[in-house]
Design goal:
3 helices, six-stranded mixed beta sheet, 6 strands, alpha+beta, signal, 36% helix, Nuclear Transport Factor 2, Chain: A, Nuclear transport factor 2 family protein
């Protein structure tokens, strides 16, 4: 009886560890896929490629920016994807380079959340910093798409790291 109990417990532990390995592997693959979406967004911005940038977004996108205006008043500006894409695709002399670090990705089922610090440069000149917050969904084609993007913007108190993209 004791041997049967040990055998049963061993089988249960093997099953549990196999399930945990499969879940961890899927989570790691999803996390990597989500990071690739974020990287593609910023690569497209640097390249001025609005089609590349558009490819990472879902059909319905909500965009918000939080900032403090010149009078010191906190503001929230609602944006839309179309003007954002137009700005990226309109030729400009300097590269728009958004460097990110301390990126945190959380995934549950078919939704993901990304929170990352950033510093934005026009060419080599620092413009502003803040936090980007993304929500993504996994669509029926098994692709991660950004459906919600919020960011904060400030020019002061920026703890810009030299790492990033």
């Amino acid at each position: 009886m004791k041997i049967a109990r040990i055998f049963f417990i061993s089988l249960m532990l093997m099953h549990y560890s196999t399930c945990m390995y499969a879940q961890n592997k899927q989570a790691s693959e999803d996390s990597h896929a989500v990071q690739l979406v974020i990287d593609k967004l910023f690569d497209g911005m640097r390249e001025g490629d609005s089609a590349k940038v558009a490819s990472v977004f879902g059909e319905e996108v909500k965009m918000y920016t939080s900032f403090i205006d010149k009078d010191g008043t906190k503001k929230i500006r609602k944006g839309t994807l179309k003007p954002f894409l137009k700005a990226i695709g309109t030729p400009h002399d300097e590269i728009w380079d958004e460097k990110i670090w301390d990126t945190k990705i959380t995934i549950e089922g078919g939704i993901a959340q990304v929170w990352t610090d950033y510093a934005f440069y026009v060419g080599t000149e620092f413009s502003h910093c803040g936090v980007d917050a993304f929500h993504l969904i996994k669509n029926p084609e098994n692709q991660w798409k950004i459906v919600h993007l919020m960011d904060t913007r400030r020019k002061e108190d920026c703890q810009v790291k030299s790492i990033g993209q």
